[in-house]
Design a protein that fits this description.
This protein is α/β, with parallel strands linked by helices.
Length: 254
């Protein structure tokens, strides 16, 4: 295993002062450090160049902290699931540590902490495989989605989807019967991608329907005029059921 000092570390924290202090600490230890100081665009940045470890700052939102949604998405995506993640929090928000670990973090470190403590936690994490979410398959009508294999099946036949299309159908299926505006879809699926417009969302929806239409399932993706889109199976007289595994918990990916 490569030495810890050769590792590429990405620090994701919107607090300028904290980010700078962490960067100085890690660089003195011989690390290659990159900083991400915005809430938007983290998923894309990790996917484009996965670091060996992500130090992810919780924003004080407790169990519902936005950072944990990002973390679940990272761990659910095969391309980024092997990235080690340590969540840095203040230890005050109720349920924050448990929520971080449940979302797939390798460890949780509460502030204030010493540099030696953080480095020791990092060594421990990097000496073992990265934590992964247990992501079961789930079923909707004739569709079965297997996030771990990044595969959609219709009538037990594998369906070829682009990465963006898989990401879209996964989000819609795992948030069934909920109407999502174009703005919501952009924020949840393509946050930080400036080239994704409402028109782009419409085009991707049409492409997804075209693929599903080859199996007479295009009506699963419905337009709610003036609002957005939703995934609904019961309109065809079919109901949700469990696959050979348990039902799936939502996660977004690129």
């Amino acid at each position: 295993m490569p030495s810890m000092e050769s590792k590429d570390i990405l620090v994701a924290d919107t607090d300028e002062q904290r980010s700078q202090l962490l960067s100085e600490l890690l660089e003195k230890g011989g690390f290659d450090v990159r900083l991400h100081k915005r809430q938007a665009g983290l998923l894309q940045r990790v996917a484009t160049r996965p670091p060996s470890m992500l130090l992810l700052a919780a924003q004080g939102g407790g169990a519902d902290d936005r950072a944990f949604g990002v973390l679940r998405s990272l761990k659910a995506d095969p391309a980024t699931a092997s990235v080690h993640v340590i969540v840095l929090g203040d230890g005050k928000a109720e349920g924050e540590a448990v929520a971080a670990l449940d979302a797939g973090a390798d460890d949780y470190v509460a502030r204030p902490f010493s540099g030696s403590e953080l480095l020791a936690r990092m060594r421990s994490c990097m000496s073992r495989p990265a934590a992964r979410l247990s992501v079961p398959r789930f079923q909707a009508g004739r569709l079965v989605l297997d996030p771990a294999r990044h595969q959609l099946f219709i009538d037990d036949k594998p369906v070829d989807l682009s990465r963006s299309m898989f990401k879209l159908v996964e989000f819609l299926m795992s948030n069934r019967d909920v109407v999502h505006s174009r703005a919501t879809l952009k924020r949840r699926l393509w946050d930080g991608e400036s080239n994704v417009s409402p028109r782009t969302i419409d085009v991707r929806i049409r492409r997804l329907r075209a693929v599903l239409g080859e199996y007479d399932c295009e009506s699963y993706v419905q337009t709610v005029r003036g609002i957005g889109y939703r995934f609904c199976v019961e309109s065809r007289g079919e109901r949700w059921g469990s696959s050979s595994a348990n039902r799936y918990s939502p996660a977004a990916r690129n």
